[in-house]
Design a protein that fits this description.
Layout lengths: L7 H10 L19 E2 L5 E3 L26 E5 L2 E4 L11 H15 L2 H8 L3 H14 L9 H14 L17 H9 L14 H13 L25 E2 L3 H9 L16 E6 L2 E6 L7 H16 L4 H16 L2 H13 L5 E7 L13 E8 L1 H11 L2 H6 L15 E13 L8 E4 L3 H7 L1 E6 H10 L6 H5 L3 H26 L12 H4 L4 H16 L3 H5 L7 H15 L15 H16 L6 E6 L2 E6 L2 H21 L2 H13 L3 H12 L6 E4 L3 E7 L2 E8 L4 H11 L8
Parallel strand pairs: 4-15, 5-6, 10-12
Antiparallel strand pairs: 1-2, 2-16, 3-4, 6-7, 8-9, 9-10, 11-12, 13-14, 16-17
Helix pairs in contact: 2-9, 4-5, 6-7, 9-10, 10-11, 17-19, 17-21, 19-22, 19-23, 21-22, 22-23, 22-24
């Protein structure tokens, strides 16, 4: 594998962080920044994390008591708005906590190349080509294609590849093939991602159809029923194999302890060699080795400044997993991570979610680095403390309820940085680990990304209003304005805390990814949503003090039905069906409730002034319907009923009313707001004195292009093909 060259400043950084042993620079970050500068009157300097910002350009810490003067929205292009988020409370952390966050920050960003390669095997060459064109800034003022090229490039950066981050459809360029060829021609060969012996003309001939031919890799992740989902998906988890072959391959894998199954296949690519299927494991000395070695480098630094022994053990287990690729060690790491409930600093780092695998086996790289928001945690903790009550009083069949809900740790976190599949588009809530047996025996961590949610809410105050356009009545609008922010927070809290953590699988039934296959993620997200929907109208939430009255629940019902049946249609192109799991589950729930409630007119479809609305007439009957569907989705999960899962998802979650879809697109266009948002990441820079980090500065970049180019240079760790 190609080793990235070690820049001179990497030796400096390695010396500072490794006690002055220059020999250790071989494991230090490559392609780092210029040498640090020394401040006047002291042997103190700001050593940049491996980026191209000089010490003189590093701004002082931006301490903001409120949102005054902070611009949440930086730009908008295509269907995307680029936002920023604040990190309140960072300045109050100790020097050791900030140092720990810095190491975890670098570990998070060091996996950036991995997610590009996972999403499509040619993504790294494509991104490096686009970066090179932008860095050379050719034809900026003379070519009419320049702005179209920049929009396409930003979309690729935002999606971590050439497929849309949500729809998974290939992003088609609006600039010309001639512009691409001319731009590549003007770039020095040394800056192009050429293969050995490849000419510039041959490279242009190769890359042009990859970008412009809509029949080449049209879908990153295909979940259409009746097709070979592996052969028709461009995602780089499999090569030269069929869905039947892969399913048979993993069906043969057995566990000595069937009650604690290993997540087979989570961290590998499956290929065919000499007629046999083999796994290329993602580990320090295997596939993605150079990037994983860099992640390990920073995680090992984090171990040295861990807040306590439990956190130290979890980080050590994560390092061991990355070194060995052993999924049993990954389980040990997850157990250790769940048991670390006292640390203020926390991190998610690894191969986590399987949404991008069409058959739900392989996990995408992601990382979320954070610290606990102690004040905001009081709300979510109040829900977590009542987890057993919620389980006991749910509408599930008695045999599907957990008799002893254990170890649910619930908190609101302040996000510092996100990487891999978690950025630029980000989750707002997380419940981990994903292994059902670990959740049952050891518990789980459920978090609400508080400052991310706040940034989304603040950015929603700019531009047109989907609420006034799509809400049926003034009463609905007023209720939403008053309560929707709290309602959304409560839904996220309950989805993660008592949703994913609820219920149990029948003895002898396999994991959902084994039994429900490509429908597992949709059913699981729907099940967690239904728990939240069922309880957001329960007086228990008023009793425990997390909401003032049931009007909050009504606001959530209004928004959920409106989103599931109308506004989310703005996210897909005409003629398409719904394929993304979260969108499928939202329409599945809303459409099922609409149909099942027709007899009692629970939800009414209304046309007013030529526009379509959905109006809830009976909130209590709607709650009962949500309870019925919750019982069914849990039954499907507990019994591994693939046929029922397929019928539910395909009947209610996939198909789109074409006339309504066209109407929604037309109405949405008048608002001039993008349906998707993501973030520029804050930047951490350590302050070093006498070879030791004494503080860490945090600044808020506001230029998406600059950050993407910086990341493309500093975290450029993998060869073109892996």
């Amino acid at each position: 594998m190609r080793k990235a060259p070690i820049a001179a400043s990497a030796f400096l950084l390695a010396s500072l962080l490794a006690g002055g042993c220059a020999k250790k620079a071989t494991t230090a970050p490559a392609e780092a920044t210029a040498a640090s500068a020394t401040t006047a009157g002291a042997k103190e300097s700001v050593v940049n994390s491996p980026t191209f910002v000089t010490a003189e350009q590093v701004s002082p810490p931006q301490v903001l008591d409120d949102d005054k003067g902070f611009n949440y929205v930086t730009e908008q292009f295509a269907d995307i708005r680029v936002l920023r988020y604040r990190v309140p409370g960072f300045e109050n952390l100790s020097a050791q906590q900030k140092e720990l966050l810095y190491y975890l920050y670098e570990a998070a960003l060091s996996g950036r190349d991995i997610i590009y390669d996972q999403n499509f095997k040619h993504n790294l060459r494509i991104r490096r080509t686009l970066d090179a064109i932008v860095q050379n800034k050719r034809d900026r003022s003379t070519s009419p294609d320049w702005e179209k090229f920049m929009e396409y490039t930003k979309r690729v950066w935002f999606s971590n590849g050439i497929h849309h981050h949500y729809s998974a459809n290939k992003i088609m360029p609006d600039f010309s093939k001639e512009f691409l060829a001319a731009s590549i021609t003007k770039i020095p060969s040394s800056q192009l991602p050429l293969k050995a012996g490849e000419t510039r003309d041959a490279f242009i001939k190769w890359i042009t159809p990859i970008l412009f031919d809509p029949t080449i890799a049209p879908k990153q992740t295909n979940k259409a029923a009746g097709e070979d989902l592996i052969k028709t998906s461009a995602v780089n988890f499999y090569e030269g194999v069929t869905q039947k072959e892969v399913e048979a391959f993993y069906a043969k894998k057995t566990d000595a302890d069937k009650t604690r199954p290993v997540s087979h296949g989570l961290n590998s690519k499956v290929v065919k060699e000499n007629g046999q299927l083999v796994e290329k494991v993602w580990k320090a000395d295997g596939m993605y080795g150079p990037a994983i070695q860099r992640i390990v480098f920073w995680l090992e630094k984090a171990v040295t400044v861990a807040e306590n022994e439990k956190q130290k053990l979890a980080l050590q287990k994560l390092v061991q997993f990355y070194r060995t690729g052993d999924l049993k060690v990954f389980d040990e790491y997850n157990i250790a991570w769940v048991k670390d409930v006292d640390s203020k600093i926390d991190v998610v780092n690894g191969f986590i979610e399987v949404y991008d695998d069409p058959i739900g086996i392989k996990a995408s790289y992601e990382s979320v680095v954070s610290f606990r928001d102690d004040e905001a945690t009081k709300r979510i903790k109040a829900i977590g403390d009542q987890a057993q009550w919620f389980e006991d009083n749910s509408p599930l069949l008695a045999t599907h309820k957990k008799k002893n809900v254990v170890g649910i740790t619930a908190k609101v976190i302040t996000t510092v940085v996100e990487g891999g599949d978690a950025a630029p588009a980000t989750p707002i809530g997380i419940n981990l680990p994903n292994a059902n047996w670990i959740r049952k025996e050891h518990g789980s961590k459920s978090v609400n990304l508080g400052n991310i949610v706040h940034a989304y809410n603040e950015s929603a105050n700019t531009g047109g209003s989907t609420l006034t356009e799509f809400a049926f009545s003034p009463e609905e609008i007023e209720r939403s304005k008053k309560y929707s922010s709290l309602a959304s927070d409560l839904h996220t809290d309950m989805h993660e805390v008592i949703g994913h953590a609820s219920g149990q699988i029948n003895p002898g039934v396999g994991t959902p990814k084994q039994t429900l296959k490509n429908y597992a993620s949709t059913i699981e997200e729907g099940r967690a949503d239904l728990v939240a929907l069922y309880y957001v109208m329960d007086p228990k939430l008023v009793e425990i003090g997390v909401m003032p009255n049931l009007e909050v629940g009504k606001a959530e019902y209004d928004g959920y039905i409106r989103g599931g049946l109308i506004t989310q249609l703005s996210r897909i192109a005409p003629g398409e069906v719904i394929e993304e799991d979260h969108m499928r589950n939202r329409q599945m729930i809303a459409a099922w409730a609409f149909e099942k409630g027709k007899k009692d007119n629970v939800i009414e479809k209304v046309t007013k002034n030529g526009k379509t609305y959905f109006k809830i007439n009976d909130y209590q009957k709607l709650r009962a319907l949500f309870g019925q569907l919750l019982r069914e989705t849990q039954r499907i999960t507990s019994e591994g009923d693939l046929a029922a899962a397929k019928n539910l998802v395909e009947t209610y979650g996939v198909k789109v009313d074409k006339a309504l879809h066209q109407e929604v697109l037309q109405r949405y266009a008048t608002l001039k707001i993008a349906p998707y948002s993501g973030f520029i990441q804050p930047k951490l820079s350590p302050v070093v004195k006498d070879g030791k980090i004494v503080d860490v500065l945090l600044v808020y970049p506001d230029n998406f292009t600059q950050q993407m180019l910086e990341y493309g240079t500093v975290y450029n760790l993998l060869p073109h093909y892996n």
